[in-house]
Amino acid sequence: xxxxxxxxxxxxxxxxxxxxxxxxxxxxxxxxxxxxxxxxxxxxxxxxxxxxxxxxxxxxxxxxxxxxxxxxxxxxxxxxxxxxxxxxxxxxxxxxxxxxxxxxxxxxxxxxxxxxxxxxxxxxxxxxxxxxxxxxxxxxxxxxxxxxxxxxxxxxxxxxxxxxxxxxxxxxxxxxxxxxxxxxxxxxxxxxxxxxxxxxxxxxxxxxxxxxxxxxxxxxxxxxxxxxxxxxxxxxxxxxxxxxxxxxxxxxxxxxxxxxxxxxxxxxxxxxxxxxxxxxxxxxxxxxxxxxxxxxxxxxxxxxxxxxxxxxxxxxxxxxxxx
Length: 323
Prior knowledge:
alpha/beta, seven-stranded mixed sheet, globular
């Protein structure tokens, strides 16, 4: 089969190689899947750089999220078992963790439903307890993770403020249905949030960026507000002043979705049922901006790492497999 493999750590475009590789053999408790679509995630770039919390042995294939097909023809969503990731024609995955791909979504959309939307749902509902009528501030609102949070916030009845960088990303965030979009390259985030909320601030902040985004969030979070820390796509991990959280009476909430998958898999399946319902109703729909062939996977991962993309980039190993 063809597979992208990483033999040494570095930037994705430099270290990912498209090669002929043996098809992976499932271990006990695993199944073999044909990859119909593989979503590109920021962890894929971190894997290539050797900066992810999981460091698979070299060589490995990145690609942590797929829509695949079982031997009996079922479409499923899966997290491949590394080192045999999704940027390949075949993967293996734990059978107990397979989830049915929603009929309302095509392969590329289904591949992009899992990690980003599960992270958003657990962050907004389990961690922050977002309520209808509250104000949600989403950083990187035009990206894959941010766009999922925007849709989930709107589905929950919140008023959503999106932060994006540049005219194209602002336009994307507006099309997603944000009630207000702030261009971080030209506007003061905190001032615009305070203006929009009549001085109250944002009840919930969803932050996959870190760095300056966190600084702005702390300035405009509301009384008893909640800042959900999802990741650090900016490359800068903030060091918040805990005295500030004390004085302003807000909460800092960490969100590591993988812990739910490990410690409470039943909650992951229940969340998928809810996401499937929302997708069937049209309340959520993954924003797939590009469908790229297998040959374009390295470039897609690099562009995501560079922050130059909107929505989701999805790799289709076989054009004939795309539904």
